[in-house]
Amino acid sequence: MPRKLAMVHTVARLMPVYDQLSLELMPEVERIHIADEILLRLVLTAGGMTPAIYRRFTEDAVWAEQVGAQVVLLTCSSISPAVDVAQPMVGVPVLKIDQPMADRAVSLGRRIGVVATAMVTLKPTSELIAARAQLAGKQVQVETVFCEGAHPLMLAGQMERHDEIVLGYLRRAMQDYDVVVLAQGSMARVAEQIPEAERRVPILSSPRLGMEYARDVIMQLPA
Fold first, then answer.
1. CATH number of the domain that residue 130 is part of
2. Beta-carbon count within 10 A of 28 CB
3. At what angle do helices 99-108 and 119-136 cross, to 10 degrees?
4. Is 150 exposed, middle or buried, given 0-12, 13-18 or 19+ CB atoms closer than 10 A?
5. 191 and 109 fall within a common domain
6. Structural domain boundaries, residue 77
7. Is residue 14 located within the same domain as residue 91?
8. What is the pTM of this model?
9. Cβ contacts of residue 22 below 8 Å, gap of 6+?
10. How many other CB atoms are found less than 10 A from the CB of residue 138?
11. Were both Cys, which of 109, 136, 162, 200 would link to 179 (CB 3.0–4.6 Å)?
C-alpha cells in the first residue's frame, strides 16, 4: 500500500503548485487534495480565526484520515492555528506548511520581516515565528509589512500591477531585515523575479520547505 498525503487548500487554483512539488519530492506517495475555499472566506470575513474555522478544518482533517491519509498538510498560513486544535482529534500527524519556514527564519537572523498582501496572514505567521523562536531559545524581533493595495489587484486579475507593488515592498524589506518571510505561499512566484545577485538577505517562502518537511515526516512512517 502506498503512503498517502492529504493536502488541505483554501485556494483551489494553487493546488497544481503543491501537486507538482509533492510529485517532485515524493513521487511514490499518493496525493489527496481537499479544496475548501470556505475556510479562506471565513477568515477574510471575520478578520481572523473563529470557532467555525477551527471546527471546519478539524472536520477536513478527520475525513482525510478516514480515507487513508497518513499525514495531513494544511497549505494555508492564514488559518495555521487550526492545526493545533485539529491534531488531538485525529491519529495522524497534521502539519503547518509554514512551520519549517518559521524555523529557518529563526535560524538565519534576529530581525525578521513578515511580508503579506492579506492582512489576516500577518498575525498567525508572526506569532508562529515568535513561538518557534521561543522553543529554540532564541531572541528575535518580528515585524510585519503589509503590501497595501496588492490583494484587490490579485482578485481583479491585474497581476502585473500586483507584482510591481509586492516587489517594491520586498526590495525595501531586504534593506531593513536580516531575513524576509513571505507570509503567503502565493507570493513565492513574485519573489522569484528578484535575481539572486540582488537578494541582500534570504527571502523565505513556505511551499517547498513545507513540502520537504511533509516528505520527511511521511517517509518515516511505515508504508
1. 3.40.50.1860
2. 8
3. 60
4. buried
5. yes
6. 4-97+208-219
7. yes
8. 0.93
9. 5, 7, 29, 31, 211, 214, 215
10. 12
11. 109
**In total, how many domains does the chain have?**
2
Q: Please give the Cα distance from 182 to 126 (Å, whole number).
A: 11
Q: What is the 3-state secondary structure (H, E, C) of 140-205?
A: CEEEEEECCCHHHHHHCCCHHHHHHHHHHHHHHHHHHCCEEEECCHHHHHHHCCCCHHHCCCCEEC
Q: What's the sign of the alpha-carbon dihedral 5, 9, 15, 18? A: negative
SS3 at position 133: helix
Q: Check: CB of residue 106 under 8 Å from CB of residue 164.
A: no
pLDDT in tens, the chain (223 residues): 789 999 999 999 889 999 999 999 999 999 999 999 999 999 999 999 999 999 999 999 999 999 999 999 999 999 999 999 999 999 999 999 999 999 999 999 999 999 999 999 999 999 999 999 999 999 999 999 999 999 888 878 899 999 999 999 999 999 999 999 999 988 998 999 999 999 999 999 999 999 999 999 999 998 7
Q: Is 111 left (phi over 0), alpha (psi -120 to 50) or beta?
A: beta
User: What phi and psi values does residue 71 have, to the nearest 5 degrees?
Assistant: -145, 140
d(C-alpha 108, C-alpha 142), whole Å: 13
- pLDDT score recorded for residue 156: 85
Q: Rounded CA gap, 86 and 191, in Å?
A: 32
Residues in the chain: 223
Looking up cell 507584482 gives 163
